Amino acid sequence: MEWIRVTHTFEPVYDNTSKVLILGSFPSVKSREQQFYYGHPQNRFWKVLAQICREEVPETIEEKKKLLQRHHIALWDVIASCDIIGSSDSSIRNVVPNDMDVILKAAKIQKIFVNGNKAYQLYLKYCKKDGPPPLEKLPSTSPANAAWNMEKLLSAWEEAIAGLIEM
């Protein structure tokens, strides 16, 4: 495989009631094919979020959007475009970041969570500004993060997010 230049082609999910912003790094190949976040069937993001929200795991893009909106969660990625090999976060280079003010000026975000180390590093390098909202790194829901089983992952995410979202 080789590097290809890829541009993020689907919109962030948010509205003016969003209180929590969850950021990934950049969509996987599967997510780019589906034109929505966390599209790889082995990624645990939707399973974790559904359990925290005490809901069924959403299947369709519309169900996923509604889950996020019901619980006042905004969802986006740090990167607008980059060179990448497949879905490999470690291969990302030549980053153009998304403008976080798109969401931060439209919603009352109380806290930003980043999904994994790479998203955290990229956010700090390209997007971090002084002042609120506070930022917290969460363990990646990617299947590549085998060190975190579902139970451990769910516990960490729930401890961080549960008090901030509508149950």
Overall description:
This protein is of the alpha/beta class and 167 residues long. The longest helix is centred in the C-terminal third of the chain and has 12 residues, at 150-161. The termini are far apart. The strands form 2 sheets. The protein has a 4-stranded parallel β-sheet with strand order 3-2-6-7. Strands 1-4-5 form a 3-stranded antiparallel β-sheet, covered by helices on one side. Helix content is 30%, strand content 20%. A hairpin with an 8-residue loop joins strand 4 (79-84) and strand 5. It is globular and about 40 Å long. The model has no long low-confidence stretch (mean pLDDT 94). It has 6 helices and 7 strands. Helix 2 (45-52) crosses helix 6 (150-161).
Features of this protein?
alpha/beta, single chain, three-stranded antiparallel sheet, 167 residues, four-stranded parallel sheet, globular, 6 helices
Structure summary:
This protein is of the alpha/beta class. It has six helices and seven strands; from the N terminus they run E-E-H-H-H-E-E-E-H-E-H-E-H.
Our count of helices gives 6
Over the alpha carbons, how many angstroms does the gyration radius reach? 15 Å
Kindly name the structural category: alpha/beta
Amount of beta strand: 15-25%
Distance from N terminus to C terminus (CA atoms, Å) equals 43 Å
Main β sheet profile: 4 strands, parallel
Shape summary: globular
Low-pLDDT parts are none
| Mean pLDDT across all amino acids | 94
Strand order of the largest sheet: 3-2-6-7
What is the share of helical residues? 25-40%
Secondary-structure element series: EEHHHEEEHEHEH
Q: What is the number of strand segments?
A: 7
The oligomeric status of these chains comes to single chain
